[in-house]
Write a structure and sequence with these properties.
alpha+beta, Immunoglobulin-like, Rossmann fold, five-stranded antiparallel sheet
């Protein structure tokens, strides 16, 4: 069903609007010209709808290699009853291209086509937006400018491609592992796997881009497109963050990731191939046995194993009926109560703590089957609503309420420097109420708000302890924030 049954009348009104906008543009200050330009675009889009012009732009291939020829097709359905419609198109890109110009392809179908061919120049990268936002906010990106004549008036509008267009370098690849954490005073050889695609045989030997102080030992080709690289990390390496990159033929190797879901246009993301290396000034977790209750929302267990701990994933049967005595520490991961029977096992966990165990709970939501008396060894309640019980300012000052507490001193001395460089936020789902045996160790707040005390709580229970941590440690560790690792180690090393 047509949105505008009487096209002529509607087009007449839009023509009058366009004429008025053009006059307005000449009379107002230049600072306001962008407002008029937006209205002109919207008027042209309305005119194409009124004229029953269903215009679309397709580009193939949507993920071209550099120097690969591409084809642009601007097509539209023209109502046979409207004889006076004329359509022209120009093609624009933010980079240098070779293009042939549009050629009209007319066939017996009501759908008409304008076809253009172009070629990317060497070392050019092409990325586009699509849809309304691309047209309205970033017309300098790849697009076609459509000019159509209807009902005696010429209209102009931008048209974005139906798909996201992204050029791909001729050689792509990946390197594993992506993250490495090493403790100081470790003279260690690190091995990496490098995979390449698109290389011509014998022409793509990768070369590591290393920070100062790190020495490549060798790069061996294991099979077609697969290499093993070994890097020497000296004992004297300064603690801090490093990046190991990969060069192929003098250019950074790029990793390609395709995102495709039914509700969005498929698109490709590119990122340089590298490994993030953190040399961490911290004690290790060697000789620590951890039973982990995974909630599926974080991978802090991975970092615990990287720091030397022996980590065992606890299944539901072990949690409720199994032997817990062989573990020094039990950790309940983020949102673990949502899917795991922690409430059913808490009496057993409480007894294990009293005999000397260390129980660490990461943050949880009140909706994750949380019960103030059975989700924790002692009464404790996450705050609700959650927006009230979090600190979103990643650089919020941190006050140490008891700087001499064991958790802030053993085995690492934790101070304000350990909270430098945090990302996203300090923490969330802070506790709002807790048993008197818990001691709050930190205070922090967003600007113009009262300090919150429920980010890090510690309670001695018998010979053991419970630590509840609502700090966003796992996210910080995923982003190689050294201070988060150092505090994480302290939480997991129980000192009787």
């Amino acid at each position: 069903m047509r949105a505008f049954p009487d096209s002529s009348k509607v087009l007449l009104k839009i023509s009058q609007l366009q004429e008025a906008l053009l006059i307005l543009r000449e009379e107002i200050q230049p600072i306001h010209h962008h407002r008029v330009a937006l209205k002109l675009k919207q008027a042209a889009m309305a005119a194409s709808e009124a004229a029953h012009l269903q215009i679309q732009m397709d580009i193939q291939p949507s993920n071209p290699l550099l120097r690969e020829k591409m084809q642009v097709v601007v097509s539209w359905y023209q109502d046979p009853q409207l004889k006076d419609i004329e359509v022209e198109a120009d093609f624009f890109t933010p980079i240098e291209i070779n293009q042939s110009g549009f050629e009209l392809r007319v066939n017996n179908s009501p759908r008409k086509k304008l076809i253009n061919e172009f070629q990317l120049q060497s070392n050019s990268e092409l990325h586009t937006m699509t849809g309304w936002h691309g047209v309205m906010l970033s017309p300098s990106t790849l697009h076609a400018q459509i000019q159509f004549f209807a009902n005696g008036t010429t209209f102009r509008r931008e048209l974005m491609p139906e798909q996201v267009v992204c050029s791909i370098p001729p050689v792509t690849g990946k390197m594993t592992p992506e993250f490495v954490v090493l403790l100081p005073n470790q003279d260690k050889k690190c091995e990496f796997q490098i995979h390449t695609s698109g290389c011509k045989e014998g022409r793509c030997l990768p070369k590591l881009r290393l920070p100062r102080g790190l020495a490549p030992i060798e790069i061996l080709q294991k099979s077609e497109g697969c290499y093993q690289a070994t890097v020497q990390i000296p004992k004297a390496s300064t603690p801090g963050n490093y990046e190991i990159g990969v060069l192929v033929n003098g250019a950074e190797l790029v990793q390609i990731e395709k995102i495709a879901y039914p509700h969005i246009r498929s698109q490709i993301f590119q990122k340089p191939v590298n490994t993030k290396l953190l040399i961490l000034d911290s004690a290790s977790l060697e000789n620590i046995s951890i039973g982990w209750i995974d909630g599926g929302a974080d991978k802090a267990y991975f970092w615990a194993s990287q720091l030397g701990a022996n980590v065992t994933q606890l299944d539901d049967e072990t949690l409720i009926y199994g032997d817990l005595e062989k573990y020094d520490v039990i950790v309940a991961g983020v949102f673990a109560g949502r899917t795991r029977p922690i409430n059913l096992a808490m009496d057993r966990i409480r007894g294990w703590i009293e005999r000397g165990g260390c129980y660490v709970s990461e943050y949880s939501r009140p909706i994750d089957n949380w019960d103030s008396t059975s989700s924790s060894p002692l009464p404790l309640q996450p705050g609700s609503p959650s927006i009230r019980w979090r600190v979103t300012n990643q650089a919020a000052p941190v006050q140490f309420l008891n700087p001499n507490h064991q958790l802030l001193n053993y085995p690492n001395k934790i101070d304000s420097v350990d909270f430098d460089g945090w990302q996203k936020e300090r923490g969330l789902y802070f506790a709002s109420k807790w048993d008197d045996l818990y001691e709050p160790l930190l205070a922090m707040n967003d600007p113009n708000e009262e300090p919150l005390l429920g980010s890090l709580l510690s309670a001695s229970i018998g010979k053991g302890r419970h630590v509840h941590c609502a700090l966003n440690l796992f996210y910080q560790m995923d982003h190689m924030v050294a201070g988060a690792f150092r505090l994480f180690v302290n939480l997991l090393r129980h000192q009787s």
